[in-house]
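Cross-check.
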Amino acid sequence: MTRATIILLLLVGGCGGGTSGGGQDAAAGGSDGGGGYAWGGGTLPIPQCGYAITTRDGANPPAQGSPMLGADPTPWGLHLGLVGDPTTSMAITWRTNDDTTLASTVQYGVGDKTDQTVEGITFAYQTLGYSKDSVRIHQGHLCGLMPGTTYSYRVGGKDASGKEAWSPVYQFHTAPAKGAAGADFVVGVIGDTRDQTGKYDQWGTMLGRIASIATPDLVLFSGDGTSLGTIQVEWDAFLKQAEPVLRQTPLVFAQGNHEISAVNYYSQFPMPGDQEFFGFDDGPLHVSVLDDTPMMASDVMTKGTPFLDHDLTAAAGAPWKVVLHHRPMYSSGILHGSNLDLRAIWAPVVDAHQVDLVLNGHEHNYERTKPLRGGKVQASTTMGTTYVVAGSAGAPLYAVGTSDFTALSKKAYSFLVVKARVGNLTLTAYDDTGAVLDTLTMMK
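Predicted model, tokenized:
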């Protein structure tokens, strides 16, 4: 089935009447309560955070949680994300076993305490070929937190009778205050986890290896989480494998070509702005995230290029500038190779702003380039950008060759651990067994 066919099915599937198990209004009557269409998405402000959450076509408008527990309100699939400032906020997303529970509460506090409460939001989205007509998402948005601080939390809630259902208590830590000195800021980089077995155990194992090497402050995902973004059963497996790490470490996701802009993808991973083109500061890094496979192909140029220029201009003073997207501008992969269209429009912006590191997937192999500027090899990392493909944490491996820009290439499963502080950044690549593939230290 082609990408165009799937998108057509999504559009057709999103134009019918409401289905059972939908949003709060849809669950009651299959509409928006006023005879309209319940699955057209919507926006809800999060007052304590100063931003809003917007759902896409195929989902309900988000709404405040309410005191109702379904048949099995056990929370699962907990994972953290970033929407606001990482030093003072955290977004928590989860499901419940019944997909009908509306209680969406987070209890949290500094250290071991859970003495503060935020009432979260909930919405549902339609699914194709799944055991249920729709999936319900719960989110809690914590803001006004203290930088560089460990918090405990649990999610769940109660019903009108006082019955309660909660997850175990977990912990996360906020990012250090901007400019704060201290330990290395640790970032795991991984992607292309789509799994031919449907178990996603290799993804879980490799994500666990990142956490065992050095507790990550952030995980960057370079796209292609599942074999197709509409296949909910694969997202379920993906999140179950990832939960032990992602319930304590935020994940930021760049869309890959296999996500196909599905409502499933956007609903399960809250991110800044439009969730496609956005930037954020975290520790000593500024990260610019780009969607190189948007629903409208022209957005790569009309949205992506001006966004990248504006975002990097605003981040001129960042100690380290990193760009994350899926399809590599520089690759010696035998199957795909370099994406010359992206290189023509985005590489000049990367060069102009002296980006330090570009992270990609798509090619299911490992490759690091020599420092590049204007398409030419430079003498040191201070004079050019290093491009890294770490392109398989479960997807089948592809053959890789070498080019004049290649520093190292290997046909291997891979993930990265990046340790950064002002003036020093070390990148280490590992294979699926935890053996070191490559290492690079940048200083400036």
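Residues 1-35 have pLDDT under 50 and may be disordered. The first strand starts at residue 42 and ends at 46. Passed to J.P. for a second look.
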